[in-house]
Amino acid sequence: MGWIEAIVLGLVQGLTEFLPISSSAHLRITAALAGWADPGAAFTAVIQIGTEVAVILYFGRKIGRILRAWFYSIFRREWRADPDARMGWLVIIGSIPIVVLGLLFQDSIHSTFRDLRITATVLIVFGVVLAVADRVGRQYRTLDHLTVPHGLGFGIAQALALVPGVSRSGGTVTGGLLLGYTRAEATEYSFLLAVPAVLGSGFYEVSKIGEGSGPEWGPTILATLVSFGVGYLVISWLMRFIKTRSYLPFVIYRVALGIVLFVLIAVGTLDPNEGPQF
Known about the structure:
The chain is mainly alpha-helical. The chain has helices spanning 3-16, 23-34, 40-58, 60-75, 83-104, 106-110, 116-136, 148-159, 168-178, 183-205, 217-241, 248-266.
């Protein structure tokens, strides 16, 4: 992987991680269209650490309160009723599905799931599901209403993002909307829920960087830094956007991108498992 490639993929990761359009799909598609090798699930997981650091900084005070209250709740009974401590436990509970499914399907994550036909399909299907959830969701609940079953529901929705094209934020927000949470509350919880999942996945895959045919450390670090800077700006914009706007623009984009992918594959321009065929 070259330095320019690393910068481009870092930009793509930062721009798409928090939008409901799937960053892993866009990394895969960008590489395929540019004629580059598939950056792979390990590279994708590692550079996502950059965008999660952006989340930690953006929600720094809230995350700090949650960690403090959660830690005290382990040893002191009176802290267990604290809302921040409760949120800490609910983030842990919501992270269980993606850990379990990630370990069970790790071989498919690195191979089968990266087929562009699957990516195109889930871009369209889950785009439509997001549109339905955004329209029919009652959007009256806040995170104060979050329960263990709801936390697991969010977590299962997040775990679907193991397939490129689903979108971690898109899947989680869709689940939240169907459970009746507002756009802003569902989005905030999706960000919090992603922190342990993404950091855990990134550090789990980090040993594969610089080995075999995988990307080298230098370009990977550069892409991670770029994704951090761009990702922080995107969070700030998105949290303002969703307070007054629907997810319809992202739905239209997902469906259009999925259709374009199918067309490129059908006419032989794009190999679903490799790059462009010119």
